Sequence to fold (528 residues):
Amino acid sequence: MKKYNKIKSIAAILMVCAYTTSCTDNFDELNTNKNAITEDQLDASLAGPSFASALYAGIHNGSYSSPGVDDQGTWGIATGILSSQFVQYLNTGYSTDRNELSGWSDRGWLRFYTVAVPALNNAFKASEGNAEALAVLKLWKVFMYNQMTDHYGPIPYTEAGNNSEKVAYDSQEAIYEDFFKLLDEADSVLSNTSESTVGLFSISDRVYNGDVEKWKTFGNSLRLRLALRISDVQPAKAKTQAELAVANGVMESNDYSATFKTSNITPNNLNMIVNSWGYVMTAGMESILKGYNDPRLEIWFSETEEEDETERAYRGMPAGGLQDQFGTIQFSKFNDDVLGNDFSEEKPIEILMASECYLNRAEAALNGWNMNGTAQSLYEEGIRLSLSQWGVNDASKISNYIAETSTPVAPDITNNPDYANIGLETPPVSVPVAWANTESEQRTQIAVQKYLALFPESWETWADLRRTDEQIIYPLLNSENFEVGKGLMKRVLFVTNEISTNGEAVDDAIDKLGGPNTGATKLWWDKN
Fold:
């Protein structure tokens, strides 16, 4: 465990120097002298670069131009073939598409604890004495650790980065308890400061440029997300936290959405990988987008490239197919102009969007919580913001979509006689976009629109599908995991190296998990 949790100051500093302006002058010196930076030298001048590193690594992206750290394969393995395939945002035919992990979970864990965590810890040390900077760092700590604990369950948290060979795992309940404590502390500082900008982060912050108000709003929007996450296991606390989030101020426009601004040194790994690694649209995405006449279909994906133009179509690959099951059938790639442009420096990376915030409020309103709006009005505004986020701003298109009464359709592959009866004939989603009359259907509608609004950020989508248990995606055609079967994976397994080097802590983590170390064991908050 030591090599996973030791604070590697040099690696973190080198990474951020590659794409921030505050330490480029001494980059060669740092790169040459591996002992140039020690913990006692982590002063305020390195707070911004360290935070920049924690931001980029904390969203599971890697820079091919940064010495000593990982490249875009971080996203491809930690995200692309795990949660993105679990939720059927994309497909490639990797074994994870059939719920068979084969150790793929190790790389995301390694990069989190050797790059993201050390960078964040360095930023905390370098920001000592600056209340506003520490408040923002607390918010980011909640965000990036939340994604990891919702992947694995118990994880190293309190003792992460303590330089010890043996590091204890915290229970998920205890981690969530600390999340809300950190959110309280951060909001108190950012609500009462006279500063409008966190000076230490004004250059290196590639999300909000140190804007205090926007970081405060981010924190409350994150609080709302976490409140819904615990709603089945701690309903009273969930209600209190959700209402507090809205009272304190959550995202109400796309101007407040959190995205990471990319560069030639910190590119969007999804853009670099999806088409070059062979990712394609899934049959489930096709079913929903086509059925709803969703204008995002042609923004996200491309038609197939058959020589006969009459045969070209938006065609999704069924999830869980066997190797070569579909022969030479073509499936839609990602749209090169938007999502599939290798080494794109323009497409920002989605972190937490205002559209999700409105849809979270819509669900909470159905719970009877005070969300300053009706479930329907919040639902419809969430749709508007998601469409606008992707460049759909025509008022008639938006209003027509919100009033859409059609439902998802069987995917194109079912028109092929060889695949007409493989289990895709009846879409799992049967509700329209137009607001329904029953609460049960309304909850499904909110879940479906959140599924679309979160795309392509799959870490949160996977957690939300597990929490709500809404049947939005098709069962897998085949599974190599007898514990999970053809359904949705419930968690990612503890990593192999941890079991061999930090075994006692992993055994304790399994006790805290409350079930075997398999993909079928539900997390603490997943009670239904």
